[in-house]
Amino acid sequence: MAPRPSITGFDPKKYAAAAASSKGDPWSRYEAWRYTGPFTRWNRFKGTFPGLGIATVAFAGYLVAEQMFFKDEDHHDEGHHTITT
């Protein structure tokens, strides 16, 4: 007796053979666009923190300017008088 054909047309043996090797993947060319062009891993990552590079350079410039031009003279004790009796 021959096995009955599936009503739906689904053949589990063909499915298992296609899943075993990527060569037999019918969707591979439809999935390839996800990893090329503007969707590469680097292009997806570089838009994660917009403005971080500019902010880092601006903050470093601020720290350098503060160290060079805004030196604090030692006036730490002014205004902090303690009254003792």
Number of strands: 0
Along the chain, the helix and strand elements come as: HHHH
CA-based gyration radius: 34 Å
The main pleated sheet reads as:
none
**Straight-line N-to-C gap:** 114 Å
Poorly predicted residue ranges:
none
Would you tell me the overall average pLDDT? 80
Shape: rod-shaped
Figure out the total of helices: 4
Given the helix and strand composition, which structural class is it?
mainly alpha
Quaternary organisation: single chain
β content, as a range? under 5%
Family: Belongs to the complex I NDUFB3 subunit family.
Membrane topology: Single-pass membrane protein
Protein name: NADH-ubiquinone oxidoreductase B12 subunit family-domain-containing protein
Pfam family, one: NDUF_B12
Describe the structure in your own words.
This protein is mainly alpha-helical. The chain has a domain of 44 residues. Helix content is 44%, strand content 0%. It has four helices and no strands. The N and C termini lie far apart (114 Å). The model has no long low-confidence stretch (mean pLDDT 80).
List the helices and strands and how they pair.
Elements (H helix, E strand, L loop, with lengths): L11 H9 L7 H4 L9 H6 L5 H18 L16
Keyword list:
single chain; 85 residues; mainly alpha; rod-shaped
Short précis:
It is found in: Mitochondrion inner membrane. With 85 residues, this protein is mainly α.
